[in-house]
Amino acid sequence: MAGQRDFSYFPYQHRICHHVYNNGGCTFCGFHTLKRCVSPTPVSDQEMIHHFNVFVNDKKHMDSLLKYGKILVETNGSWFTEMPRAVREHIYKFVEDNKIELHTQCRATVINQEKTQRAFEIMMWQKGDCLSSLELEKEMAQMAYEAIDTELKPYMLIFTGLEVADDNDLRLINKGCTLEDFVLFSEFVRKRNAMVGANVLIKPPLIENPIHKALISARYGFEVLKATEVSFCCCIPFRGTFGHKLWREAKWDPPSLAECSEILKQTRDKYLSESPRRDVSFYNPRVQCHHGKYTGRKVTTERQKALVRANVRRIAAEVFK
């Protein structure tokens, strides 16, 4: 795993995740607010391609992509709905020419035309789009389905935001997906010879027994979804989100670095020994962890860290037995 995800590329795009318009999107996510990758005005396909070319033509970036053998395109939403086709095809060619893997992300419901149509319907209604006719909604849903059906390639690893493997918790964070959606998505992708990745959140707000849930979700990703990679993400208080409000009011304490690193270690010890093709990754937790900033419950002493790690090991022993 690259310490700073040196193989990540953030497109500069105007389109944001269509789920944001569905009651605000996932309660923990503020990705659509990041100015470095969201343009307030429309961005043409050529401008997006130019932005990508500037990134890969930088020697430092290119060396990292070749070193790790992959590029992770961190779309603001789903690869097949928020990224224009011309841009996708340009990136496919780059990946094929350089013989590396393409890692990206997609909402599990994109393979369900009815749910995708409903999401687009809400998006266009919220935006006041004058073209929000039923025919256009159907056409967009069909386009999304056809794209993922025809464009999946063996060198693609498609991450989907499992977050937490519990239907009640998925409703609580307004994920807009069920465990059944994730199972169907995994089957769909793997039948077309592409690889599946599962994103798992550590300690999202309002989730009970969060360490247990994170480990259970990793197990679900590998054993049920047959994921090639499980990627942990420390849930952070994005400005403008419900989680940020709870954090400022000292009603939610994000995970500590000690918890994150021990969860990563226990999951790797369990699953990487079983299959060398699997991977367990993590965004750099030193950048992400906001533990104790407003709550006064910092884990700083060696004794505190040892207690936290021992607790994670105890829970992992129960989950991975």
Helical content class: 40-55%
Number of helices: 13
Order of adjacent strands in the largest pleated sheet: 1-2-3-4-5-6-7
Structurally, how many domains make up the residues? 1
List the helices and strands and how they pair.
Layout: E1 8-9, H1 45-56, H2 59-68, E2 70-73, H3 79-82, H4 85-98, E3 101-105, H5 113-127, H6 134-151, E4 156-163, H7 167-172, H8 179-191, E5 195-202, H9 210-223, E6 229-234, H10 242-248, H11 257-271, E7 279-282, H12 285-288, H13 302-319
Parallel strand pairs: 1-2, 2-3, 3-4, 4-5, 5-6, 6-7
Description of the molecule:
The chain is an alpha/beta fold. The chain has one domain (8-238). Helices cover 47% and strands 12% of the residues. The chain has 13 helices and seven strands. It has helices at 45-56, 59-68, 79-82, 85-98, 113-127, 134-151, 167-172, 179-191, 210-223, 242-248, 257-271, 285-288, 302-319, and strands at 8-9, 70-73, 101-105, 156-163, 195-202, 229-234, 279-282. Strands 1-2-3-4-5-6-7 form a seven-stranded parallel β-sheet. Helix 9 (210-223) links the parallel strand 5 and strand 6. Helix 1 (45-56) packs parallel to helix 4 and helix 9 (210-223) runs parallel beside helix 11 (257-271). The chain is globular, with a radius of gyration of 19 Å. The mean pLDDT is 85.
